[in-house]
Amino acid sequence: MKYLHLFRSPAPWNRLLAAASLLLALSACVHPEEVNYVQNLVLDQASAINKEYKIIIKKDDRLFISVSSKNPALAQMFNKDSGSVSSPRDDERGYFVNTDGDIVFPVLGRIRAVGKTCTQLAGDIEGLIIKEGYIKDPAVSVRLMNFKFSVLGEVSKPGNYEIKGERLTLLEALSKAGDLNMDGNRDIYIIREDHGQRIASKVDLRNSDLFHSPYYYIQQNDVIYVTPSDRKINTRSEQLQIYPYLISGTSIAMVILAFCI
C-alpha cells in the first residue's frame, strides 16, 4: 500500500507521456529545404526555354485525324471513320495505332505512324493525298485522343489520369494528383516506355534543373512514382520501437496497482 500514492498522483505519468509525445514530434520535424520546390530558382530573371516540346506517336495510341479542302465533297471520303475529340464515344472512334506501328486510313490504306509527331504524320498524309491525285489542297489535322499517365505513392490522389491536349508538365501532372504529401520524397521516379524499352529516371523537384530534364514534359503512359521520405520511414520505425515499451510499462503499472489495492 505504501506505493499506492504513485498511481493516485497523475503528475509522474503526465510527464512521461509528455516526454514521449515530444520525442515523437521532434522526430517528425520538417525542414523547408527538404520539401520546397525549385529552391535555387532566380526570381524576376528570364531564362530561355531550350527544350522543344513534342509528343511522339506510340503503339496503342488513338488518333483523331481530319482532312479538309476547299471542296468539302472531295475530303469527305477521308473522314468517314474519323472520330471527334469532343464526342462522348471517343474511346471507340479515331484511328488506332496497331502493334506494327501503323494506322489503317480510308482510301490510302496502311500508313506508318509510330515514331512520328502528329505534325509529321499530318504532312505524310497530305503528301500521299496529293501524290495520288485525290485533292490538290488537302489540310490534315492530327491529334492524340488518349493521353494517359499514372501517379503513384505519396500524393493526395494517386491514380490514372487522362487529359485532352498534348502538353503536360511534371508539375501539372502532380497538381492533378493533389500534390505531394508532406512525407513524399522530392526525388521522384518517372517510368517511361520509349521505342520498345522501359526507362526509369529520377527527378529532383527541389532543383530548378528539372525544367531542363527530358522528363519535365510528360509523355503518354508515363508512370510517376513518389516514394516515402526517409523521415517518414524513420518516424514510423521509432514509433514501432516505442509503442511496445509504453504498452509493457502500462501493463506492469496495472499489475502493481492491482497488488497494491
Which descriptors apply to this entry?
single chain; about 260 residues; alpha+beta; Outer membrane lipoprotein wza fold like; wza like fold; 5-stranded mixed sheet; 3-stranded antiparallel sheet; 10 strands; elongated
Question: pLDDT below 50 for ≥5 consecutive residues: which ranges?
Answer: none
Radius of gyration: 30 Å
Number of strands: 10
Q: What's the SSE pattern? A: HHHEHEEEHEEEHEEEH
Terminal Cα span: 7 Å
Biggest sheet features: 5 strands, mixed
Helix content: 25-40%
CATH architectural arrangement of the largest domain: Roll
Task: Tell me the number of structural domains.
Answer: 3
Number of helices: 7
| Helix-strand makeup class | alpha+beta
Q: Into which percentage range does the β-strand content fall? A: 15-25%
What report would you give on this structure?
The protein has 261 residues and is an alpha+beta fold. The protein folds into three domains: 4-30 and 231-260; 32-40 and 147-228, Outer membrane lipoprotein wza domain like (Outer membrane lipoprotein wza fold like, Roll), CATH 3.10.560; 62-144, wza like fold (2-Layer Sandwich), CATH 3.30.1950. Helix content is 31%, strand content 21%. The chain has seven helices and ten strands. The chain has helices at 4-8, 11-27, 32-35, 72-75, 118-131, 170-176, 230-260; strands at 62-68, 95-96, 102-105, 109-112, 139-144, 147-153, 159-163, 187-194, 197-204, 222-226. The chain has a five-stranded mixed β-sheet with strand order 7-6-10-8-9, covered by helices on one side. The protein has a three-stranded antiparallel β-sheet with strand order 2-1-5. A hairpin with a 3-residue loop joins strand 3 (102-105) and strand 4. The protein is elongated, with a radius of gyration of 30 Å.
